[in-house]
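Is LLP placement plausible here? Inputs below.
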Amino acid sequence: MTRSIHPIHDFHYKSGELYCEGVKVSSIVKKTGTPVYIYSHNTLVEHFRKIKAAFDEVDPVICFAMKANSNLAVLKALVREGAGFDIVSGGELRKALLVGAEAKKIVYASVGKTEAEIADAIRAGILLFNVESKPELMNIERIAGRMKKTVQVALRINPDVEAPTHDKINTGSLKKKFGIDLSTARGIFLDHKRFKNISINGVHVHIGSQITEGAPFMKAIRTALAFIDDLLRDGVQITYFDIGGGLGIIYSDEKPQTALEFSNKVLPLLKGRALRLIMEPGRFIVGNAGIFVTRKLYTKDNGVKKFMIVDGGMNDLVRPSMYGAHHEIIPLERSEARKIVCDVVGPICESADVFAHDRKLPDVADGKCLALLSAGAYGFSMSSNYNVRPRAAEVMVKGGSWAVVQARETFKDLVQGASIPAFLK
Ligand code: LLP
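Reply from A.M.:
I modeled the complex. Tokens:
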């Protein structure tokens, strides 16, 4: 019997065992060990296609926000679908080029771009720098001049919109470091002729992440379009309109707007305007396409609370500790075990190393594995070596096949580049 846990992804139980597409998850884990991230190729590309189809009539440049997941196989799968990338560092630029992304589909945000990063991106011939301040703009002008190039730039405006999401992933208000306030941005556009090596012809707006409602997006987009209209009246032509990312997904009982509902609201506003649309979805594409599998070590009961201790920790998946994020937790084998209410915790020496608080879960036997769902976005990409823990392996499943797409780190990897100086020997 096949039963989908969610209609939104390709992880499902078949005869009581969790499958990713056509592969039994436990058979993967037997080979890779734990903890491990597992991605469904089908779920990944289906989500890309959903956005693409919803906005097809304006043929947008869809730049996957690589910060959500920069695994090379994930990136390659998206490039094969026609994706570009939203990057935020020189490292992300190199990964984009490594998987064969078209430079003309790369946009580069970040409030702090170094001289070397700017020069590399100019050399690569990216589509747009999404500029976040005046000093950054001056730097790009100077570096482009030195390189005898003309580069295209969009200004990331800060629309001063408070999005209903976690404060740490809210970016569209003037209390945050992101973007340029409207009056400064307008001044720069009106003064655009003084720049010799940059052509300022785009507006970018990104107000935050995991935003499930349409209203804050529409408020930001309307603000940006009014801003563009004002510029047009003053004779400033805008070619690109980058509406960022931020679409929320289902972690438990969220009811986010669908890609189609979103496009139905956005597209009418673009009618009759000669604007090339750019989008930067990250979580929407990859969030539900990944799970994080961890092994239960044992349960500890201190008389007040029960703790289910697992071998994955906040170094592997920091979202619950950092944002209080919820990830569903299910066993790899559907379990008849009695349910207990417990905190699911990792081995890290921090009280914040908790995947779930007071969660009702089957008390599976020690050594059995659990899957944390919707872990494809900001999971592995935010992982660290805290507590000298090697980062987890990553696997991609496609139909009945699977492959390790990132090997588990070894101790050698962890001490690579470290040395003990002569004065300590
Ligand atoms: N564009 C820009 C300029 C961004 O800063 C971001 C995300 C995105 C696009 C993609 O946003 P998305 O579509 O994935 O929501 N680590 C946090 C999320 C941080 C988001 C950072 N910027 C988390 O785990 O919830």
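Short version: The first strand starts at residue 2 and ends at 4.
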